[in-house]
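Task 17 of the worksheet. Students: predict the tertiary structure of the chain below and write it out as structure tokens. Keep your answer in the requested format; marks are given for formatting as well as content.
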Amino acid sequence: MRPGDRPPQSATGPGDPRGTSRGQALVELALILPVLLLLLLGAIDFGRVFYSQITVNDAAREGALEGSRNPTSFLAGTACTSANKETNRIMCRTLNEAKGGFVTVAPADVSVSCSTGTCPAAPALGQTISVAVAGRMTLLTPFIGAVFGSQTLALSGSATAQLNAAPTVTGTGPSASFDASPPSGSAPLSVTFTDTSTGAPATWSWDFGNGQVSAVQGPHTIVYSSASTYTARLTVSNASGVTFTTRTITVGSAPAGPPVAAISATPATSGAAPLTVTFADLSTGAPTSWAWDFGNGQTSNQRNPGPIVFGSIGTFTVTLTATNASGSSQATTTVSTNVACLAPTASFTVNPTTGKKKQAQFVVTDGSANMGTAGCNAQWSWDFGDGQGSTLQAPPAHVYDDKGTYTIQLTVSNLAGSSITTRQVTVTP
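Model answer:
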């Protein structure tokens, strides 16, 4: 350091206000974090208390609903087990509803009382049952415990329900019965319902199981449009009682329409006899039986019959009749057979083989083999090499206008194939 220079200053000396602010902020944050945490835990505790109270109330309500149907099915202070679940139904339903929350409910916390003192096995109209449930929960934060007076909070709830009771019956009630005709069939099914109840019913309530109802005696004709099983119910009543009965209506699917017959024939339906053809059923509409007539005296009831041999020459109409419960239809195809044709071999002679132009008459004579069988579609094609030709088996003598060497070509063909052969002639000046 040179004489007269001032010493360097510290980044944050004792008098630096920035260092003081940061320290103060850290102190304030350290003070406020516990407060925020307590407030958060307090909010959670209040939510747990609210949810637990709802749980206790719901458990009491479910117990009362069960008690309205089974008021004597309760074993005080006894846990619900698989062995006593029928005789302890109120306890089982109450404890089951109380499970899974923040509150604990023990068998001793559930009590039952009836408006008649001892809960009756055969309730009368107007009697009630009450279920009271007590529960305990532990709070998370001490200051919330201070608000409630203890870290362990006791909660309670109760519910009352009307006991299910049948009205007092005097006299003889009716006996419900009815006829349903027909009780089964295919859709759409029309069923006539006729009341046959006895005991002088005064009211009728029909539920036909397909959404249709009626409050009059009938008879009723109901159409079931969809395949299904329906339960029809008739309830009748008079001043002495109410009774009901049911019948099952079975509706099947609507029957399919008649099939549409179709035939497959392979490898070919025409050719030389004997001709073997394999037939197959291509019908749609789910046929259940098949009747084949091959037009040559052979028949079959198989869906896909084996190969059929057409041994004679002719045209045969093959008919398939396909049938199901809704009807039948037919399909036909034709098989044509002809004589056995052999492949031809072209051959001819020409005379003379040499001659003068515009004078010599060259005569060709066909000698081809396998061209004489009737029905084989024999054909000849001559090409004299000078742009002239013929389709006759024996064409007229041919005269050449110019000298030269010409190639005469014969092409023969029938249903079995074709063949070509040639000869040369020389035309002089």
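Marker's comment: The helical segments are 17-69, 89-98, 142-148. Residues 159 and 255 are 57 Å apart (CA to CA).
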